[in-house]
Specification:
Blueprint (H helix, E strand, L loop, with lengths): L45 H19 L5 E5 L2 E8 H15 L8 H13 L3 E3 L12 E4 L9 H31 L8 H11 L10 H10 L1 E5 L5 E3 L8 E6 L2 E5 L3 E6 L4 E2 L1 H6 L6 E4 L4 E6 L3 E7 L2 E9 L16 E7 L1 H11 L13 H13 L2 H12 L20 H22 L1 H5 L1 H17 L7 H21 L5 E4 L2 E2 L13 E7 L5 E7 L4 H8 L13 E5 L5 E3 L7 H4 L5 E5 L23 H4 L2 H18 L3 H8 L10 H23 L2 H20 L3 H12 L1 H4 L2 H5 L3 H12 L4 H13 L8 H14 L3 E2 L2 E3 H16 L3 H8 L6 H6 L8 H11 L7
Parallel strand pairs: 16-18, 18-22
Antiparallel strand pairs: 1-2, 2-4, 3-4, 5-12, 6-11, 7-10, 7-12, 8-9, 8-11, 13-14, 14-15, 15-24, 16-17, 18-19, 20-21, 20-22, 23-24
Length: about 850
């Protein structure tokens, strides 16, 4: 499928495997027209592929370690051609490290998972038919006897075959380990196994609403049920409810007496929770739809509710392991609480009284729950309200008693307690500044609060003993404000010059004062250029256009319309902001009356390059192009603040000072590189077309090695565009090694198990690297639309925790201390200047026309 980031599609194209049913299950997004991130065309199924992997490894083992496979006698029993689990792990570990190009560490535990995957698919067997692989002196043997030795004809490709085999095993190994661990009794699971189960639970859609702590609790007790035959009943309508179920593989039918089957639940869906919540009997009968189904089973976690005047004001979850800690055993755990929901002001009070004191001496790191609040508060508690609440807490009078009986301090008529309240607020603000950085000072309310609070602290320091450390910390905040304000006082810069990056632009962090020189057209094809500030709304830009309108009626109602390269017309809303960065690649902006909108058109020669255009691929090698793409994309990514993602998903005009302009450019660039890959193949002359395709695949490979996942996935998606994927004659000219490499890169976009292949790749990477931004936004969109922000008048803080996790992931990819050296280069090579603006065709119909000219419709791939 053709997956292109477009705001109007709301990210549904990226692996939308979410469904909506009317039965008891976790809230999820409505079902839209499903469209995978890429269409896979692999001929072999997983079983066949693993059989081939087994033959490759068996051949390599026979060539490099022939003594591993030998006849053994244990306790009087003779086992032919067997090998020990320990030797197998040793050998495969060394082979994996030898073939690795990233230097990423891999453990014996992970290697065991790779062997377990082969055991599950009958590539190897245990000599006594034991059901799992163990890194012990247990005996295993290959299921197939032929041991073909490498010949000179096959040795050249053996390294590539081995690399592909190891890549597949590292991808599916965690799944096999996951199933093996869940088959064990909970008491036998080791800390390492519990950690792997926890990581796998992060990818289960039905658990997305639960916090880290609860997921770690589940890792210790969750079980797996495997059912061989379709038609098996999990439970009947009317049975008592004792468990909550999640489908790991397969599907189930939900049947209600008198109605029959009302819906079908599939992988990632859950059922059975309603009976637990309401303490009622099962409302439906659940029947397996598929053979070999696998279902996770567990029970609910505990909650604690705090009330005022008979109403809930704060809901906490009671857990026995602190957030982020590995489970080391039940006997070592202790009870703690995490916020699930609450009134915004009560959540703030709870955080001030239970999370701040532990950070008095160290503000270099921020408590995760507190950080969740700081990153997400604009969604439910505007900055001016938060500042007002902090000021109120700072100036609170004695004899105000906390509603939290478990808090370590109850406010009393005591100078020490007055000091404690003031110290907590100042520490909170210091942590707030640390967490948001520059974006804290872009918010007018937060910026002015620093000066207001500083004046209060300065005055209190004259009369309250012990205020010296508080004043010192407040001075540090004020000094940080002065430094940032100095940097923000720079001159306005031109970011885009008539739709392309300005030659002098260095991709700085875009500020509201920065401008774009925007070409605006009249219906008669005449045009003018307007300097548009980033913070201007469409309604303001329209007023700026009026002096250029030749109509005699100065009060005439005007609209701004984008005409895309495919002819689609989009009338922009008056409140749209950061207009120039919102436009599509070859989109044209018109100012007209509403009646003239249907007459607006563009021409093909304005919408991208034409055949025989000079190609970037002809000028530079694959490695050089990949390097310069990575450098430019790291610039764009580093300039993009993580809070822009919230503005993009929740509303571009909803958060003062937080314009998503940098994020716009990053997404625009993703589309640009994607269409560039498609365009290059289709416009290259026939003799060089296969060479161009091969070169683009190599650029994608180099991009993966350099941590530029934006280029990697944009190019892979561009080459998966139907206009390129259908060119069977061109693909047939590629060496098998290159086609295999592309299949491996393509497999990283597999959307199953919540894009598990991509997430496993990212988990192995060391920052800085540029992540797959559209998938991050898809995660945020799913969280936002699948979970209510308020529930019974309380903020759903579990939703905020999930949002904060995505934002942290975005931020952690930067590792700013490492990025700073990369971004500062005095001179840019010519290749860097060329990759900044790629000429592309983004009209799918035109791309298909070019494709049919190359290979007519009767040709099939």
């Amino acid at each position: 499928g053709d997956a292109v980031y477009d705001r109007s599609l709301e990210l549904d194209q990226f692996g939308n495997d979410m469904e909506f049913t009317a039965c008891d299950r976790t809230a999820s997004l409505p079902q839209h027209e499903t469209q995978s991130i890429v269409e896979f065309t692999t001929a072999m199924g997983l079983f066949s592929r693993l059989q081939e992997v087994g033959r490759i490894l068996q051949r390599e083992m026979a060539a490099t370690a022939p003594t591993m496979i030998s006849d053994r006698t244990i306790q009087g029993r003779h086992y032919m051609e067997s090998m020990t689990g320990i030797d197998m792990v040793d050998w495969l570990l060394q082979l994996t490290l030898r073939l690795s190009t990233t230097g990423a560490a891999i453990s014996r535990f992970q290697i065991s998972g790779m062997w377990q995957a082969l055991l599950e698919h009958d590539v190897i067997t245990h000599v006594t038919s034991e059901q799992h692989f163990a890194d012990k002196q247990l005996l295993y043997r290959w299921s197939h006897r032929p041991l073909v030795r490498p010949t000179r004809e096959t040795a050249e490709d053996s390294a590539d075959e081995l690399t592909s085999a190891i890549f597949l095993l590292t991808t599916i190994g965690p799944d096999s380990l996951f199933r093996m661990i869940l088959a064990k009794p909970a008491s036998e699971r080791t800390p390492e196994e519990l950690e792997l189960v926890y990581e796998e639970l992060l990818h289960v859609k039905a658990l997305a609403h639960l916090s880290t702590m609860v997921k770690r609790e589940l890792a210790a007790v969750i079980n797996i049920e495997t059912h061989t035959h379709a038609g098996t009943v999990i439970f009947h309508q009317g049975d008592p409810g004792a468990c909550w179920y999640i489908i790991l593989r397969g599907a189930v039918d939900v049947s209600i007496r008198g109605k029959g089957v009302v819906c079908t639940l599939r992988e990632g869906d859950d059922f059975g929770k309603l009976a637990l919540v309401n303490e009622s009997k099962r409302a439906a009968t659940i029947i397996l739809r598929d053979d070999e189904a696998q279902i996770l089973r567990d029970v609910e976690a505990n909650t604690v509710r705090l009330k005022e005047h008979g109403q809930d004001v704060l809901v906490l979850e009671k857990v026995f392991t602190p957030r982020g800690a590995a489970v080391q055993g039940r006997q070592e755990s202790h009870c703690t609480y995490s916020v699930m929901a609450g009134l915004a002001e009560k959540m703030l009070e709870y955080l001030l009284e239970t999370r701040i004191d532990a950070q008095e001496e160290d503000v270099t790191s921020v408590n995760p729950t507190l950080q969740d609040f700081l990153l997400t508060h604009p969604i439910y508690m505007p900055t001016n309200i938060l500042c007002h609440s902090l000021k109120k807490y700072y100036t609170r009078h004695p004899m105000v008693t906390s509603i939290f009986p478990s808090a370590d301090v109850v406010i009393q008529e005591d100078t020490e307690q007055i000091l404690t309240a003031k110290r907590r607020v100042v520490t909170f603000v210091a942590l707030w500044v640390k967490t948001l950085g520059l974006h804290y000072f872009l918010d007018p309310s937060a910026n002015s609060f620093i000066e207001e609070l500083y004046c209060c602290v300065l005055e209190d320091a004259q009369s309250i003993p012990g205020m010296s450390p508080v004043l010192s910390r407040m001075k540090s905040c004020r000094e940080a404000r002065d430094r940032v304000m100095l940097s923000l006082s720079r001159h306005s810069q031109i970011v885009l010059d008539c739709g392309v990056y300005a030659p002098t632009s260095t991709a700085p962090h875009i500020l509201p004062i920065d401008t774009c020189r925007q070409l605006i057209r009249h219906p008669d094809a005449s045009s003018f250029v307007l300097a548009v500030r980033m913070d201007k709304r469409v309604a303001e830009v329209i007023e700026m256009c009026r002096p250029h309108i030749r109509s005699g009626n100065s009060q005439e109602t005007l609209v701004l319309t984008e005409v895309k390269s495919n002819g689609e017309r989009l009338v922009l809303a008056p409140n749209d902001i950061s207009l120039p960065t919102m436009l599509t690649l070859n989109g044209k902006l018109f100012v007209s009356t509403r009646e003239e909108v249907d007459l607006l058109v563009t021409h093909n020669d304005e919408n991208g390059p034409i055949p025989n255009s000079t190609s970037l691929l002809d000028l530079y090698g694959s490695a050089e192009v990949a390097t310069q793409l990575a450098f430019f994309h790291m610039e764009l990514f580093h300039a993009t603040n993580e809070l822009e993602t919230i503005a993009q998903v929740f509303g571009r005009d909803s958060f003062p000072g937080h314009l998503p302009s940098n994020l716009d450019l990053l997404l625009r660039r993703f589309n640009e590189v994607q269409y560039w890959a498609t365009t290059e193949v289709l416009l290259t002359a026939a003799p060089k077309r296969a060479q161009a395709l091969r070169k683009l695949i190599k650029i994608a490979h180099y991009s993966k090695q350099q941590g530029d996942l934006l280029s990697l996935f944009a190019i892979v998606l561009g080459l998966s565009n139907v206009s390129v994927s259908r060119l069977s004659l061109t693909w047939e000219k590629l060496p098998s090694r290159v086609k295999r490499l592309f299949a491996e890169l393509e497999s990283l976009l597999d959307p199953t198990r919540n894009h598990r292949a991509y997430r496993a790749l990212v988990a192995k990477m060391q920052p800085p690297f540029v992540p797959f931004i559209p998938l991050l936004l898809k995660d945020l969109t799913f969280i936002h639309e699948g979970n209510k922000t308020f529930f019974n008048g309380l903020v759903n803080f579990e939703k905020m925790h999930m949002i904060a996790n995505v934002i942290r992931t975005f931020k952690e990819c930067k590792a700013s201390s490492s990025v700073s050296g990369i971004l500062h280069r005095d001179e840019k090579p010519d290749s860097q200047l060329l990759v900044r603006n790629l000429r592309v065709i983004d009209d799918q119909r035109r791309l298909l026309d070019l494709s049919y000219q190359i290979e007519p419709k009767m040709s099939k791939r």
